[in-house]
Amino acid sequence: MKNTLDVLMSRLRMKQLQLLIALDDHKSLHKTAGAMAMTQSAASKALAELESMLEAPLFERAKTGLIPNPFGCCVVRYARVLAADLSSLCQEVAQIRAGTGGRLTVGTIMDAVPGVVAPIANDMHAKHPDLAIEIVEDTSANMLVMLDDGRVDLVIGRASVSDQPSKYHYQPLTDEPMSVVVGRDHPQLSERGGREVSLADLAKLRWVTYPTYMPMNALLERELDLAGLTMPANPISTASPLVTVTLLQQSEELVSILPASVARLFESTVCCASCRSR
C-alpha cells in the first residue's frame, strides 16, 4: 500500500483525475477525449498510466459503454472528492484575497459545546457571515492528532492527555463540573424524596458509561475508587450524550454521568442527582 501511495504522490496528475470523472460521466473514451480537448490515444494512454499506478483495471466495456468496475467506482469517488476540495480551495483563497470569508475548523470536547463553542460560533458567524465554520466533536486525544495534522485550526479540550503537552499553546478557559444523571422517575430519587444520595447508593445500579478510551470513563472510575467502590459490571457503553439521555428517558433503572453543561440541556427529561462520593 505504501509503495502505491508513493507512486501516486510522485506521478499522479490532476488531468488523470479529470479524465476519470469525465469518463464516468460520458461512458465513452471518444466523447471524453473530445470533452477534454485531447486525442483519444492520449486519453487512453493517461487511463492506462493510472491503472498501472494502481495495479488494477478501472473500467469495463458494457452495452452502455465504459462503466467503472469496483476499483473504478472507488477511485472515481475519491477523484470527485478531490475535485470538490480543490474548488473549495480556490473559492477560499479568492475570499481571503478579497478580505472576506475564509474557513475555521474547531475541534471541541462535548463538555465545551453548550457554554463555550456554541455561543462563540454563533457570535462569530453573525459578525462574519462569509466565514465558513466547521465544528468537530471528539476526544481530546483524537483532536490533538488532528491539530498536529492540520485538520483543525484549534482545539477546545485537554492538552494534558498528550505525551507532549508542552508543545501546545494552552489557555485555561473553565472548569468541567460533572453531574450524576438519572431519569426523572428513578426509584432512588423517589424513595429518598429528593434527598442527597451517595455513590454507594448508585454503584450497584445499571449504568450507562463511556468507552474506556474517554477521559469521562477514567473520571468515573477515579470517583468510585475514592469512594471505595468498583466500576459497574457489564454497563451499557456509549460516547454519545444523545444515546445516554434517550436510555435514561426510557428506563427508570439507569444512571450515568454527563458534563453539567450538557445535562442542563436535557433537564426537562433527566434529573441531576445531588451526590456525595462518600
UniProtKB/TrEMBL annotation:
Organism per entry: Candidatus Burkholderia verschuerenii
The keyword Transcription regulation appears for this protein: yes
GO molecular function term, any single one: DNA binding
GO cellular component: cytosol
Gene3D superfamilies with a match to the protein in the record: 3.40.190.290, Winged helix-like DNA-binding domain superfamily/Winged helix DNA-binding domain
Record keyword tRNA-binding present: no
Keywords: DNA-binding, Transcription, Transcription regulation
PANTHER family linked to this entry: HTH-TYPE TRANSCRIPTIONAL REGULATOR YBHD, NITROGEN ASSIMILATION TRANSCRIPTIONAL ACTIVATOR-RELATED
Listed InterPro entries: HTH-type_LysR_regulators, LysR_HTH_N, LysR_subst-bd, WH-like_DNA-bd_sf, WH_DNA-bd_sf
Name of the protein in its database record: Chromosome initiation inhibitor
Superkingdom of source: Bacteria
PROSITE patterns: HTH_LYSR
Record domain HTH lysR-type: where: 12-69
Protein family per UniProt: Belongs to the LysR transcriptional regulatory family.
